[in-house]
Write a structure and sequence with these properties.
Strand content: under 5%
Largest sheet: 2 strands, antiparallel
Strand order of the largest sheet: 1-2
């Protein structure tokens, strides 16, 4: 009988730990949600395709509904093919951006990106490690997934980091966690999916994410510099000629950002049109400018891999959308809110802790898109109840994904790195802890300093307020950007001052009568102004008008029938007869026969 080697013993330990965690999770869910919930959780954790789990849960939920009239399989399809989901332009961008990422990963773009970054920041303390941070973030933004980044950029830089003198633990931990850094940058796919589902303006989301995304990168860059000094890594001198040459070699990839940003900012293209333009541009530069890929030999292979991944993502999104519909229809979030309040969790800081733990666990057992779609209908009603801002919640969603992807024991990046670098997954747990700590610090700052999530869109909110003031109406658009709404079609004030200024989300009653200092008679707006305000949908936001006497019955008839002052006034006969009232109701004039 052979004695197991150290590697085999470590793998056995990892297997026991993993199955122990799976069993514990299944038992907990079975105890709290019932046998059906436990079986579904077991299938999901054992590797059943996620779209099948979500679609199956949706169908089982409807078929076991207490109301027999709801027990139909057709409940799934309408939500999948509805205009809110299938008609979203962001849905088109997923295969297009995935194709862009796959094309760049198959070419020599990672080498050109690393060379350009190294030429500009390689002279700093920990320069090559900083290059790894920035290159990983940019490449994840290109590809939309951490796995491709770990395989492409990580595989390129790990040997270089070791050769430069960095410790094996630091180098492997950096390339493992760096794969998800680009998720919190403008135009990252998780942000676009979040905007699609919640109805949030994706251009404002891309602007708001700059501050928290910059915070995460700054923490990683600072730690890389600290390690460079601590481990006495030699620094290379800055060479302007090399920086210029490396940037010039990378100029065509930079055109991707230029096309995307200019097309959207100038309103020349929508997001889906910009994605198509970028995909065509990327194919052109890689096949005909750099000639890294062959149009005949490589295009079909690259497109096949990209569309397989994009199709899987869209299928998961569709099934998650159907599951979301059931959750909303059965008012499950409201029930959870009531349960939390009964338990005494009625403080905002308490809810933020619970939400972050929930999103972290969800991000470890699901891919990013599915986690977002499953969590949104559960979390947003809570966020609306506690008055959280929409950008604040969006940043916490994505930052939790970054943390979950690298967090032991089930983080996706750990398994990809284990496969790519042939290391036991358990051996990576300790290596990623410093980087997990940096992400946790960023998450705490973003969670409890919400201003960092919307500081860059405060000007846009102020513009919406100013526009509403000029139009004499409630600042509904600003409220949608300031706090999560229970009903986006009927936004309500967020701050205490707005709640006082706009009771029940309406303009203050401009028809309140004021005492006339001279005549002592009540002042009100004229009947013409009142009718104009009604037609234009203004609930009181009109300029004060001259005092007018109390409306007579004839004046009231004129208002009801839509008559105006420029028409011949009726004769003042006092009260009308029954015949005249009948003619008024039938729409006839006083002198009609």
């Amino acid at each position: 009988m052979s004695v197991p080697s150290g590697l085999e013993a470590t793998d056995a330990k990892a297997a026991r730990l993993t199955f122990g965690l799976i069993g514990g999770a299944v038992l907990l869910l079975s105890a709290t949600g019932g046998l059906l919930v436990g079986v579904v959780a077991l299938l999901a954790l054992l590797g059943t395709p996620l779209f099948a789990v979500m679609g199956g849960v949706s169908e089982l939920a409807w078929l076991t509904d207490a109301d027999p009239s709801q027990q139909f399989l057709r409940r799934l399809a309408p939500e999948v093919f509805g205009s809110r989901f299938a008609g979203s332009p962001i849905l088109t961008t997923i295969p297009l951006f995935t194709f862009v990422g796959y094309t760049m990963a198959e070419s020599k773009t990672p080498e050109r990106l690393v060379r350009a970054a190294n030429s500009w920041v390689g002279w700093l303390p920990g320069g090559l490690a900083i290059v790894c941070v920035l290159a990983s973030a940019v490449f994840t933004l290109f590809t939309g997934g951490s796995g491709v980044t770990i395989i492409a950029v990580g595989g390129l830089l790990l040997p270089a980091l070791k050769q430069k003198g960095y410790s094996d633990n630091f180098a492997l931990g950096l390339v493992t966690t760096g794969g998800s850094l680009g998720l919190l940058l403008p135009y990252a796919l998780p942000l676009l999916v979040y905007a699609m589902v919640t109805g949030l303006d994706f251009q404002l989301v891309n602007k708001a994410v700059l501050a928290p995304g910059g915070l995460v990168l700054a923490l990683f860059v600072g730690y890389a510099g600290y390690i460079g000094v601590k481990e006495k890594i030699p620094r290379q001198p800055f060479a302007l000629k090399e920086a210029a040459l490396a940037t010039w070699a990378f100029k065509w990839e930079l055109g991707v950002f230029v096309l995307l940003v200019l097309g959207i900012k100038t309103n020349m293209t929508d997001i889906d049109e910009a994605a198509a333009l970028v995909a065509l541009y990327t194919l052109g530069i890689e096949c005909f400018v750099y000639k890294d890929l062959s149009f005949k030999k490589d295009l079909v292979r690259v497109a096949k891999g990209a569309m397989a991944l994009a199709g899987a993502v869209i299928l998961i999104l569709a099934m998650a959308n159907a599951l979301t519909y059931y959750i909303v229809d059965k008012h499950i979030p409201e029930r959870l809110i009531e349960a939390m309040l009964k338990l005494g969790l009625d403080k905002t800081w308490q809810f933020l802790i619970v939400m972050n733990v929930f999103l972290l666990v969800l991000g470890m057992v699901m891919d990013g898109f599915s986690a977002i779609l499953v969590a949104i209908p559960l979390v947003l009603p809570f966020a609306a109840h506690f008055g959280l801002g929409p950008f604040h919640v969006a940043i916490m969603f994505v930052l939790n994904l970054e943390l979950a992807f690298s967090c032991p024991p089930l983080g996706l990046n750990l398994f990809i790195s284990s496969f790519r670098f042939n290391r036991p997954v358990v051996s990576l747990y300790r290596l990623v802890l410093p980087f997990i700590g940096l992400l946790a610090i960023a998450l705490l700052v973003v969670t409890y300093v919400p201003r960092i999530s919307n500081v860059l869109v405060l000007g846009d909110i102020a513009e919406w307020r100013a526009k509403a003031g000029r139009d004499g109406r409630t600042p509904r658009e600003a409220w949608r950007l300031e706090c999560v709404q229970h009903d986006n079609s009927n936004p309500l004030p967020c701050s205490a001052s707005d709640k006082a200024a706009y009771p029940q989300g309406r303009m203050p009653d401009a028809a309140e009568k004021k005492v006339d200092e001279h005549a002592g008679s009540p002042a009100s707006m004229s009947e013409e102004d009142a009718l104009d305000a009604l037609i234009q949908g203004r609930d009181g936001g009109v300029l004060p008008s001259k005092p007018s006497p109390e409306l007579s019955s004839d004046d009231l008839d004129n208002l009801i029938m839509g008559k105006r002052k420029d028409r011949p006034p009726p004769s003042p006969t006092g009260k009308e007869s029954d015949d005249e009232i009948e003619r008024l109701i039938l729409g006839k004039g006083k002198d009609a026969g």
